[in-house]
Amino acid sequence: MNTSPESGGMILVMGVTGAGKSTFVNALKPESVTVGHTLESTQAPPQAIQIFLNEEQTRSVTVVDTPGFDDTRRSNTQILAEITEYLVTQYALQVPLRGIIYMHSIQENRMKHSSRQFLEMFQLLCGDEALRKVKFVTTHWDNIDPEREGEALRREQQLLDEWWAPMLEKGSSNTQFSGSHDSAEGIVLDLMSDDESIVLEVQRELVDCDMELGETEAGKSLRKAIEDDIAVCKTTIDEIDTQMVNAMRSRQRSTNDGNMARDQAEIRKLRRRKIELQRTVNELEPSQRELTARGKVGRKVKKKISEEQRKANADKAKGMFASAMEVFTAVLNIVLVVVSFAIL
Ligand SMILES: Nc1nc2c(ncn2[C@@H]2O[C@H](COP(=O)(O)OP(=O)(O)OP(=O)(O)O)[C@@H](O)[C@H]2O)c(=O)[nH]1
Ligand SMILES: [Mg+2]
């Protein structure tokens, strides 16, 4: 497979929706940037920022924004599939993975269900060995009122002690993102301060072992999470049914209007709750089936890479080959922004 020397390495930015991934990636761009290619889309497309680390432009790193988890428009299965597509493309193109930036908003008061689910899935995607190049980054600090800073610092400590401790013990690190260009650059440079790169568990599973998405550790965990969520909904629906029968009996037995109205209101409330839960089950069940249907993601991505390589090479002058980064962005349909000025 063709990897050009200027493709350097890659850093992936991950985290739940709203964590601040795109904001971070945008902060890496100085005032004037050259855009590789643009897409005709009303929404801001995902970006990959290629930063040259020396004036000779022989060393670079590309920082890649990835899809967020808990996006209301897509199921968690779709998001897992999209994230793994990024990971498989990078690995299959033999672009060294220099690190992962895991973003989390310090404004999140308590760990949301989706944040917990994503963190668990992330650990399974990574595997233990890759954790030494994972940086947990808290964001939205500039949104914290000065009088609330103590609270935010306590939340940060709780993240470190309760949620990230197992990964920090295995070599991950943590820091704060202030929102500035310098802060973003510092985080990237820190991950680039050694020459090491990592291979994630899911990359070995999908590419080296040709597994199906649903068979990977992350896929199995998501399947279990979906099953658990469906089971909780169904148990609650059964409980609601019992409560509804009781409320109906009570309404029938009621001898005064006040009690009857109270029971009627209760029945309406239970009915609404049941409809909501049924809707959740209806959304979760296809997501479960889709996990199986995704099949051998590694194989599919490799085929896509070959097609894009063929197309890109056809556009080049004789004897020239498309760079790994050009193929990466073409496969994933993302915008490559080249920051052509050295940041060192
Ligand atoms: N003040 C402040 N706002 C932030 C920060 N990070 C993100 N935001 C805001 O929070 C919102 C969500 O941030 P994004 O960067 O789009 O989040 P994301 O992680 O890319 O989210 P998805 O693309 O949905 O996965 C936006 O309105 C940002 O302007 C930060 O560090 N400080
Ligand atoms: Mg984003």
Summarize the structure.
The chain has 344 residues and is an alpha/beta fold. Helix content is 52%, strand content 13%.
Can you describe what's shown?
With 344 residues, the protein is an alpha/beta fold. It folds into two domains: 5-211 and 296-339, 3-Layer(aba) Sandwich (Rossmann fold); 218-288. Helices cover 52% and strands 13% of the residues. The chain has eleven helices and eight strands. The chain has helices spanning 21-27, 76-92, 113-126, 149-163, 165-169, 181-191, 201-208, 217-253, 257-293, 297-315, 324-332; strands spanning 9-14, 34-35, 47-52, 60-65, 97-105, 134-139, 173-176, 335-339. Strands 2-8-3-4-1-5-6-7 form an eight-stranded mixed beta sheet, sandwiched between helices. Helix 2 packs across helix 10, helix 3 packs antiparallel against helix 8 (217-253) and helix 8 (217-253) packs antiparallel against helix 9 (257-293). The longest helix has 37 residues, at 217-253. It is globular, with a radius of gyration of 24 Å. The two termini are 31 Å apart. The relative contact order is 0.19. Keywords: Hydrolase, Membrane, Nucleotide-binding, Transmembrane, Transmembrane helix. Residues 11-149 form the AIG1-type G domain.
Order of helices and strands: EHEEEHEHEHHEHHHHHHE
> How many structurally independent domains?
2
User: What is the annotated CATH architecture of the largest domain?
Assistant: 3-Layer(aba) Sandwich
Biggest sheet layout: 8 strands, mixed
> Could you tell me how far the N terminus lies from the C terminus, measured between alpha carbons in angstroms?
31 Å
CATH superfamily caption of the largest domain? P-loop containing nucleotide triphosphate hydrolases
Gyration radius, rounded: 24 Å
Give the spatial strand order of the biggest sheet. Answer: 2-8-3-4-1-5-6-7
Helix content: 40-55%
Beta-strand content estimate: 5-15%
Ligand types: guanosine-5'-triphosphate, magnesium ion
How many helix segments? 11
InterPro entries: G_AIG1 (IPR006703), P-loop_NTPase (IPR027417)
Domain AIG1-type G: 11-149
Organism: Neurospora intermedia
Keywords: Hydrolase, Membrane, Nucleotide-binding, Transmembrane, Transmembrane helix
